[in-house]
């Protein structure tokens, strides 16, 4: 399997990242340390995860040169107004104790300050936010920019097109059409909740096909799943704060074509799985933020 995917900038983004959403501030440092020792070179974080300072310290402690570790962060909903972008980015850079991010994403396709209704205009067309991000790339504070949903962004005269689109992708929600579209447009998909997300992981890891493939290849169910994601051409971001799982999830290898197809078919033909989040995510939206 490829160790990296290449973005339009030419930068190589490591195929497997440690996800740190819901990693508590007292456990995330250890998780990052274990991951870097196991060979991970990509940490998928965000301002809203409230653990960036701990992530930054663990990266520093590793002694690895900065350019060997890929750091991703995300611009929170409350900072989409152009004047709020650079201060939000600066706060993240300070917390991570770094001069630049390898990748900065618009976290959700939603401009909304806490306690206020959402800003419809900026949500419907986030081009002013995007232009500010383009400016941050020009300033050297960010290397690559992307989104976690595309919305209407592609209709604008973009100087820099999104390098990635980070969305939920897992056995229960494999998004084959979006994946096909992304490949046609040279856009890398990043799979969050790749094991199914909190609460559904057990269901994923007990899927008969996944276990049969694992038994045949001498791999654990989680390794079958992380490998399948990379083989599909998506960047995989498993979250764990458990040392043995962090190490386990990184041991990926190619599935023979026939077994890959068996898993792909199972994932894309099972009955729809109940959705985890309400479509408006409780944010008072009049659109489905996941579609
Ligand atoms: P923990 O962090 O306590 O180790 P996802 O990345 O799909 O959102 O899944 C994250 C969840 O899956 C977390 O609850 C994490 O638990 C758990 N998890 C991560 N890796 C494994 C694994 N290899 N086996 C079982 N559970 C795992």
Automatic annotation (TrEMBL):
Q: Which residues form the active site?
A: 49 (proton donor)
Keyword terms of this UniProt record: Oxidoreductase
- Provide the protein name: Aldo-keto reductase
Q: Which residues form the NADP-dependent oxidoreductase domain?
A: 19-264
Site Lowers pKa of active site Tyr — annotated at 74
Q: Where does substrate bind?
A: 107
In the record, what lineage is assigned to the organism producing the protein?
A: Eukaryota, Fungi, Dikarya, Basidiomycota, Agaricomycotina
Q: Which Pfam families is this protein grouped with? A: Aldo_ket_red (PF00248)
* Superkingdom assignment: Eukaryota
GO MF terms on file? oxidoreductase activity, acting on the CH-OH group of donors, NAD or NADP as acceptor
Q: Which InterPro entries match?
A: AKR, Aldo/ket_reductase_CS, NAD(P)_OxRdtase_dom_sf, NADP_OxRdtase_dom
